[in-house]
Amino acid sequence: QVQLVESGGGFVQPGGSLRLSCVASGFTYDYYVIGWFRQTPGNEREQEPERAACIASGDERTRYSDSVKGRFTISLDKAENTVYLEMNGLKPEDTAEYYCMINVDCYPHGAHWGQGTQVTVSS
User: Fold this and answer.
1) DSSP annotation string for 1-45
2) DSSP string, 41-79
3) Cα(first)–Cα(last) distance of the chain, in Å?
4) Which tens digit of pLDDT belongs to each residue from 58-91?
């Protein structure tokens, strides 16, 4: 059974930084894509979660949404099956529930998900 356990969310002022971690276990993919999607409060029914960043297990190729590019960095420790999201220059619009996902590509359909971790950016 695939399990994804996130940690590292919290409250931060605009311009601040946070680091999210996600430990994955129980998966059998030889090749996988792991990453972070986010869901803004109140939009769970209207919108699909927004992709923030993904990284591929093979070549560690990364993909970022335009809204986080240049501020967020995703990295993967394959030995520990842990993915990190370093978030710098946080803005109030980054406030969301952040979900770790693992799949065969960077899209939400058919993915396995963690329970989520809340990030709140406010002064």
Assistant:
1) --EEEEE--EEE-TT--EEEEEEEES---SS-EEEEEEE-TT-TT
2) TT-TTTSPPEEEEEEETTT--EEE-TTTTTTEEEEEETT
3) 40
4) 899 999 999 999 999 999 999 999 999 999 999 9
pLDDT digits (tens, 9 = 90+) for 15-70: 999 999 999 999 887 889 999 999 987 766 556 788 999 999 989 999 999 999 99
Q: What is the DSSP letter of 81?
A: T
Measured from the Cβ of residue 14, the count of other Cβ atoms closer than 10 Å reads 13
Query: 3-state class of 122 per DSSP?
Result: coil
Tens of pLDDT, residue by residue over 5-16, are 999 999 999 999
